[in-house]
């Protein structure tokens, strides 16, 4: 009996490949293709107990909004569904989802408990291949954190379908602006990446500029005029404690940015008539001068490995982009096109640099490779300025200011193709956004 | 399945979410205070990454049979070809022919049909996307209906963006559903090796 089983096994192993070879083969090149959003069906998540209905609906809505905002996905409207999902553990009827042209299907379930706990679980399916995409995942936590859970779900889906890390569970710190253009009041604010959970961090008694997140996402650094001169301040978002980075000084300091390890800050200091780039050690508060050129060197930004710094300088006659070693030296220019360049920011991927470009009377947000090649302008407007990268280096936020006496800034996002331009929801005018890393 | 899930829930631990990838179970407990307002951001997350698809789903996960597969299309009588008639037919000694009997137009028609479903947006948005060329294999029956799985040929085990490229190719094939083969010439069906090159051809923006 065992011999027979062995023989059958051998035959089965040999038979498969032999039978597979009895067909003629043909190789065909597929060229062209299309670029379109992937249709996704997200039936309302199942409420597994009374009281979870609202959260089940809200969470699915946030997940859909996250995915659609990327421009890479589109939602199949619920009115088109042939069948719904009433049991999280039941197999999807793939034919029904394929019939409504869904290519991905997300099913989810939500349960709540009397002590305020929330459990969200989901599965993702490839409708065409009729296969699950990865394993099911569950998040559990306090119900008050439901939006973050929804963003985590969306991050996972995004990652599984695009192969990139998600960025939805992240925050934006920015300058909130109110009032007329000639008397604009500014204060710092922080919100979720999609505009939810807005909180103000300062009052509007002093002008504030260019807030930046620390890599730990719990500290920010920004410029404030509260001493009368532009000075750099640190703020801990958890305690609310603030401190002036360099203490009282006559020198003006601007445009600070953290190093990737969070241990240093690089910024411009205006010493008399010269503006140079300095590095500040956050433990010792000792500063090191990195540039000595007579030109104006501003808006430095570290490479993700911390070894280099990109900055803007007019040392060559017009403002251009330069890269130097993080210890100073080895300066070389990377921008070469017409126009002037500013506010360079190194991509978290390390492969590109985003910038503002002024050319032909218009402002552009653009990207180039770190060697200055492959410059691509993604936007054009009266004023587009101050790009900041999403944590995965796929999307940029910036602010756009409209022309005229009533012109005002708003925050926008654009992906690296330039095709997915969207306004970010803020309650009022908003400028100088900075995107945190994914929250911990 | 349900029992398995419950066991994971019972074993959930409260750990920093940064451990998520390592432990598979984690949480956030975070007090955050912003000036001038203090906000309680406390919440915790636990994660289980082992919700296996239900058995019923696996049983039902057979590929959709394209409509043509169920049609009882009678094979056409075919006059035997000789090498003299068509030297591209391939070996006539009982070996596996290489199917070059398809004309260039016929090949192009197959490529065009697949290209219409090939959504390469996730690939072309990548830096240096030209490298993400994938070759995949799929069997079709005499009517051009897809049989079985689409399998990667090159890379043989796609990962990262190559996996995304493979997934896009697979979606295109399944969406096309049927490949227009001359059934009279391939009564035993065919194995297609399809090469998807994201840098080639015109791109349609839908």
Describe this structure in words.
The complex is a heterodimer of chains A (440) and B (206). Chain A is mostly beta strands. Chain A folds into 2 domains: 38-162, TolB, N-terminal domain (Rossmann fold, 3-Layer(aba) Sandwich), CATH 3.40.50; 171-435, Neuraminidase (6 Propeller), CATH 2.120.10.30. Chain A has helices at 2-20, 53-69, 94-99, 146-162, and strands at 25-30, 34-35, 38-41, 46-47, 73-75, 104-112, 117-126, 131-132, 136-142, 171-178, 185-192, 199-200, 208-213, 219-224, 231-236, 242-244, 252-258, 264-271, 274-281, 287-289, 297-302, 308-313, 320-325, 332-333, 340-346, 352-359, 362-369, 376-377, 383-389, 395-401, 409-415, 421-423, 429-435. In chain A, the strands form 7 sheets. In chain A, strands 3, 4, 5, 6, 7, 8 and 9 form a 7-stranded mixed sheet that branches. Chain B is an alpha+beta fold and 206 residues long. Chain B has 2 domains: 2-39, no CATH class; 99-206, 2-Layer Sandwich (Fusion Protein Consisting Of Minor Coat Protein, Glycine Rich Linker, Tola, And A His Tag, Chain: A, Domain 2), CATH 3.30.1150. In chain B, the strands form 2 sheets. Chain B has a 3-stranded antiparallel sheet, covered by helices on one side. A two-stranded antiparallel sheet of chain B has the order 1-2. In chain B, a hairpin with a 5-residue loop joins strand 4 (134-140) and strand 5. The longest helix of chain B is centred in the last third of the chain and has 16 residues, at 161-176. Chains A and B meet through strand 1, strand 2, helix 3, strand 7 and strand 8 of A and helix 1, strand 1, strand 2, strand 3 and helix 3 of B.
């Amino acid at each position: 009996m065992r011999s027979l089983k062995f023989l059958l096994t051998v035959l089965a192993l040999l038979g498969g490949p032999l039978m597979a070879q009895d067909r003629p083969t043909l190789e065909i090149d597929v060229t062209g293709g299309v670029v379109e959003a992937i249709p996704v069906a997200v039936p309302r998540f199942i409420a597994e107990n009374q009281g979870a209905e609202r959260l089940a609906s809200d969470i699915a809505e946030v997940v859909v909004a996250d995915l659609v905002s990327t421009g890479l996905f589109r939602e199949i409207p619920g009115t088109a569904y042939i069948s719904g999902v009433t049991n999280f553990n039941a197999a999807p009827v793939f034919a029904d989802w394929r019939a409504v042209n869904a290519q991905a299907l997300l099913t989810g379930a939500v349960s709540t408990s009397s002590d305020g706990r929330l459990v969200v679980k989901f599965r993702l399916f490839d409708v065409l291949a009729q296969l699950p995409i990865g394993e099911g995942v569950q998040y559990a936590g306090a119900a008050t954190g439901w939006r973050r859970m929804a963003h985590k779900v969306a991050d996972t889906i995004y990652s599984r379908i695009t192969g990139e890390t998600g960025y939805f569970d992240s925050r934006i710190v920015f300058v909130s602006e109110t009032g007329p253009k000639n008397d604009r009041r500014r204060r710092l604010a922080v919100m979720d990446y999609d505009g939810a959970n807005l909180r103000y961090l300062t009052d509007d008694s002093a002008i504030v500029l260019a807030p930046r997140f620390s890599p730990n996402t719990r500290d920010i650094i920004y410029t404030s005029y509260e001493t009368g001169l532009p000075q750099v301040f640190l703020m801990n978002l958890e305690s609310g404690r603030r401190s002036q980075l360099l203490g009282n000084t006559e020198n003006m300091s601007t445009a600070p940015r953290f190093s990737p390890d969070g241990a240093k800050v690089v910024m411009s200091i205006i010493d008399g008539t010269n503006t140079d780039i300095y590095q500040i050690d956050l433990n010792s508060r000792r500063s090191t001068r990195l540039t000595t050129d007579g030109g104006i060197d501003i808006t430095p930004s570290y490479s993700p490995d911390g070894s280099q710094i990109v900055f803007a300088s007019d040392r060559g006659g017009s403002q251009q982009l330069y890269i130097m070693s993080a210890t100073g030296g080895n300066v070389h220019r990377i921008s070469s096109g017409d126009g002037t360049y500013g506010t360079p920011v190194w991509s978290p991927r390390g492969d590109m640099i985003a910038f503002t470009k002024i050319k032909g009377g218009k402002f552009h947000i653009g990207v180039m490779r770190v060697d200055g090649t492959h410059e691509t302008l993604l936007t054009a407007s009266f004023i587009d300025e101050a790009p900041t990268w999403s944590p995965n280096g796929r999307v940029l936020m910036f602010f756009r200011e409209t022309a005229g006496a009533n012109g005002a800034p708003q925050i926008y996002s654009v992906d690296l193709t330039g095709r997915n331009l969207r306004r970010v929801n803020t309650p009022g005018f908003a400028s100088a956004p900075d995107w945190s890393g994914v929250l911990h | 399945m349900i029992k398995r899930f419950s066991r994971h829930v019972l074993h959930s631990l409260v750990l920093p979410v940064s451990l998520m990838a390592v432990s598979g179970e984690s949480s956030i407990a975070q007090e955050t205070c912003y000036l001038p307002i203090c906000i309680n951001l406390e919440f915790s997350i636990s994660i289980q990454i082992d919700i296996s698809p239900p058995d019923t789903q696996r049983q039902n996960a057979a590929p959709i049979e394209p409509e043509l597969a169920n049609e009882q299309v009678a094979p056409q009588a075919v006059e035997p070809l000789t090498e003299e008639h068509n030297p591209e037919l391939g070996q006539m000694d009982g070996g596996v022919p290489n199917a070059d009997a398809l004309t260039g137009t016929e090949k192009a028609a197959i490529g065009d049909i697949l290209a219409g479903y090939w959504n390469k947006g996730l690939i072309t948005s990548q830096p240096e996307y030209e490298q993400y060329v994938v070759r995949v294999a799929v069997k079709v029956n005499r009517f051009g209906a897809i049989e079985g799985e689409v399998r990667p040929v090159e890379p043989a085990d796609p990962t990262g963006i190559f996996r995304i490229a493979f997934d896009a190719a697979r979606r295109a094939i399944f969406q096309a559903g049927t490949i227009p083969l001359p059934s009279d010439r391939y009564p035993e069906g065919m194995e297609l090796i399809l090469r998807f090159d994201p840098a080639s051809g015109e791109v349609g923006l839908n």
